[in-house]
Write a structure and sequence with these properties.
The complex is a heterodimer of chains A (188) and B (281). By secondary structure, chain A is of the alpha/beta class. Chain A has a single domain, classed as Rossmann fold (3-Layer(aba) Sandwich). Chain A is built from 6 helices and 9 strands, in the order βαβαββββαβαβαβα. In chain A, strand 7 (119-123), helix 4 and strand 8 (144-148) form a beta-alpha-beta unit. The longest helix of chain A is centred in the middle third of the chain and has 12 residues, at 104-115. The longest helix of chain B has 19 residues, at 10-28. In chain B, helix 2 runs parallel beside helix 4 and helix 4 (56-65) crosses helix 5. Chain B has 2 domains: 3-77; 88-278, Vaccinia Virus protein VP39 (Rossmann fold, 3-Layer(aba) Sandwich). Chain B has 281 residues and is an alpha/beta fold. In chain B, the strands form 2 sheets. Chain B has a 7-stranded mixed beta sheet. Chain B has a 3-stranded antiparallel beta sheet with strand order 3-5-4. In chain B, helix 10 (229-241) links the parallel strand 7 and strand 8 (243-251). Chain B is built from 10 helices and 10 strands. Classes of the chains: A alpha/beta (188), B alpha/beta (281).
Chain lengths: 188, 281
């Protein structure tokens, strides 16, 4: 019944994503869309690295590109990434939100409008509060919300802020998150 | 109300949004109907949340009845975030790949489409001056938002941003110091007037206006990302038509001629920095 997964993370995010993303099999039924705060510099290296580790194809999202299963999409550095109602991506260079561009809130909010109750939103380790509002909107629109347990996160500020903004459906340690996402992805 | 009301009435929001964009086009001629909607939606919900208005229909009523209100609202829909020497790698490639070609011309025209508050036009002027080319060219810098054009004409920017601009300038292969090109006053910096001698700022809308001029070089960076596919294609073709044969097109880092109707009409100069050359055909 779910149609997409969005993930937001900053400090410690690379380590966290390396634990989660390689666990998805080739035929994983949902597109995965990630905002990772990585500064203004290129994330080519990181994407190439993940591509070697993952069975799904990892790429930067392009403007007007359709959102498809089989892919893990990353927001390009210095652009906000949004999902349109027709399930294509759009990019923007709008002002930073929560000192961030890409901003997790902007991805989550747009994806919530597009996918409504068929979206799974996930907040992982991070050092600021970006994503908390976006996760709240996902919850309000009937989507599933997951927050990494802040006690064990490399940086706890982001999951803590998310927990303050919204009572998530699921709160898990990092090593349990991939399994839960897979279970939800195949749930009817 | 705003956001939370529409969260349980998402379809209604889309209907009202479409009506609003139709209304704006009919009343004022600005056409946002084929813009990507997620950004517009976010801006409109934000506008509702900070105003006394509770629905998009109420907002539409205000817009239809007050031109002044509409002019303010235009700022919500246009993106005016930019910086000097944004994407320094682009300017570096421009210096290496395009400047030698421009040096072979006795006179050339440049169109900077979607110049917003002008930081990137002045960056280009600085680069051209350092290469001894500024006197040989005419630069047209256009935007549909007249308010930002006024700011661009002034050439006065916040001092707080200068450190970042200086860093960008050095990374872009700048030959001097950025400070050589401006005067500090209070919290602002004013760019040297000689930089704007060759720049004409003008009102032009890529969506509703036709070919602006025939030019040797077009910069249109981070404008097309706001358009839906069909509009992106049309504007891309308009840019193509505005170039002389062998003319140069520079797009934003995440924009490309790939998968558009002009894909076969250009050669690639720098794939990564999105610099293209119109084929002679």
């Amino acid at each position: 019944m779910y149609k997409a997964i969005v993930i937001g993370t900053s400090y410690g995010g690379i380590e966290a994503l390396r634990l989660i993303l390689p666990q998805f099999e080739e035929n994983f039924p949902l597109p995965v869309i990630v905002v990772l705060h990585i500064g203004e510099h290129s994330n080519d290296l990181f994407i190439r690295h993940l591509n070697n580790m993952c069975k799904l194809a990892v790429k930067e999202a392009d403007s007007n590109e359709p959102v498809l299963p089989g892919y893990i999409y990353f927001a390009p550095p210095n652009y906000h990434l949004q999902v349109e109602d027709d399930f294509t991506f759009s990019l923007s260079t709008d002002v930073k939100l929560n000192f961030s561009r890409p901003s997790i809130d902007i991805l989550f909010e747009s994806a919530a409008w597009a996918y409504k109750n068929t979206l799974i939103g996930t907040i992982l380790t991070g050092a600021n509060s970006d994503g908390a509002n976006g996760l709240k909107i996902i919850k309000e629109m009937g989507g599933k919300t997951i927050v990494q347990n802040p006690c064990h996160a490399i940086a706890s500020a982001m999951p803590k802020a998310a927990l303050k903004a919204v009572m998530p459906d699921i709160r898990l340690n990092i090593e349990e998150i991939a399994g839960k996402l897979i279970e939800l992805a195949y749930s009817k | 109300m705003g956001g939370s009301y529409y969260e349980s009435n998402a379809d209604l929001l889309n209907i009202e949004l479409q009506l609003l964009l139709d209304a704006i086009f009919l009343r004022y001629g600005y056409d946002f109907r084929d813009y990507s909607k997620a950004h517009i939606k976010r801006r409109i919900l934000h506008r509702l949340s900070i105003s006394q208005l509770s629905t998009v229909t109420e907002l539409q009523d205000r817009i239809l009845r007050s031109r002044e209100f509409f002019i303010d609202f235009l700022d919500d829909l246009s993106i005016n975030v930019t910086e000097m020497f944004r994407d320094p790698e682009f300017y570096k490639s421009f210096r290496e790949n395009i400047i030698p070609k421009l040096k072979t011309y006795t006179f050339f025209k440049i169109w900077h489409a979607g110049c917003a508050t002008g930081e990137e036009v002045y960056s280009l002027a600085i680069l051209l001056q350092e290469e001894g080319l500024l006197d040989r060219c005419q630069v047209y810098a256009t935007d549909f938002n007249r308010k930002v054009l006024e700011i661009a004409k002034e050439g006065v920017y916040q001092k707080a941003d200068i450190e970042q601009y200086e860093r960008n300038y050095q990374l872009s292969g700048g030959k001097k110091k950025l400070a050589d090109y401006y005067q500090s006053m209070y919290g602002s910096v004013m760019l040297n007037k000689e930089l704007s001698n060759r720049i004409v700022f003008a009102d032009h809308n890529l969506v509703t206006d036709s070919v602006f001029a025939e030019v040797n070089l077009i910069l249109c960076r981070n404008v097309l990302i706001y358009f839906e596919k069909k509009l992106q294609d049309n504007v891309m073709y308009l840019l193509y038509q505005s170039l002389v044969p062998s003319g140069i097109l520079c797009l934003g880092t995440k924009e490309s001629i790939k998968f558009t109707r002009v894909e076969k009409l250009f050669d690639i100069v720098d794939e990564k920095q999105k610099i293209y050359k119109k084929k002679i055909v």
